[in-house]
Amino acid sequence: MQSQRVSQAADILWSAWQEKRLLESLPEDCRPHSLEEGYAVQDALAMRHGGEVIGWKIAATSANGQRHIGVSEPLGGRLFAQFCHPDGACLPAGPLHMRVAEAEFAFRMAKGLPPRATRYATEDVMAAVATLHLAIEVPDSRYRDFARVGAPQLVADDSCACFFVLGAEAAGWRGVDLAGHPVIGHRNGAVAERGSGANVLGDPRIALAWLANDRAARGDGLKAGEIVTTGTCVKPMPIAPGDQVVADFGSLGRVRVAFS
């Protein structure tokens, strides 16, 4: 994809981000048609944003999620400090298009995982992790019909990144079966969805290893201190202004967010 087309696509998406405006799709003359082209646009979009990147998100880590947006593999996107909030934050729901909240396991890296000739095993990746955090992602899209634009355009738009709520460190997590660990999403005091870590590529640790290898192949890998949120453990919960959402990870704790 020529640099001029990449720049044009990034300009259009950045304008939509700033103006909270929805696109039908990117124009054909600058539309990415492969994941490689989509990530090139995402790189350029991040430069236009200019904010601190604190880590990465993984979208479409469940079979149902992939079917919903018409993709066949997970998608990576950047997390910006500007959109990261602490446990208990109140976020504006009005401007959101997707209007869902997702309960997720997030890892903070102790060591970097740079590109190398061989793939990282899950054990290698977990040895580089410092802490596990409970999180709520509130994704959004700059496309009106995000389920139909396809993976390259979704990746170009930072894989539906938006708000991210980071909870406190979970204690004693290394001995926990994260795949089998139950997760419950509450909305306004009632159970909205039930799931487990198995909904995240079979195990959140497998999802983290996937991203580590994907970033090693496509960019400069993962860096020490970065946060990676690994995908929703429950079916995305619809939200509206005035709602309160709690992601309950049982013995590992809870994380909360409200919407105005």
Structure description:
- The structure is a single chain.
- The chain is an alpha+beta fold and 260 residues long.
- It has one domain (52-259): Fumarylacetoacetate hydrolase, domain 2, CATH 3.90.850.
- The model has no long low-confidence stretch (mean pLDDT 97).
- The chain is globular.
- Helix content is 25%, strand content 30%.
- The relative contact order is 0.22.
Question: What shape does the CA trace take?
Answer: globular
The helix tally amounts to: 6
The CATH topology comes to Fumarylacetoacetate hydrolase, domain 2
Mean pLDDT: 97
Question: Quick one: how many beta strands?
Answer: 13
Distance between the first and last residues' Cα: 41 Å
The gist of it:
This protein has about 260 residues and is of the alpha+beta class. It has 6 helices and 13 strands.
Give short descriptive properties of this protein:
single chain; 260 residues; Fumarylacetoacetate hydrolase, domain 2; eight-stranded mixed sheet; globular
What secondary-structure arrangement, pairings included, does this model have?
Blueprint: H1 3-19, H2 35-49, E1 53-59, H3 63-69, E2 75-80, E3 84-86, E4 89-91, E5 100-109, H4 122-127, E6 129-138, H5 151-156, E7 163-169, E8 182-187, E9 190-196, H6 204-218, E10 227-232, E11 237-238, E12 244-248, E13 254-259
Helix pairs in contact: 1-2
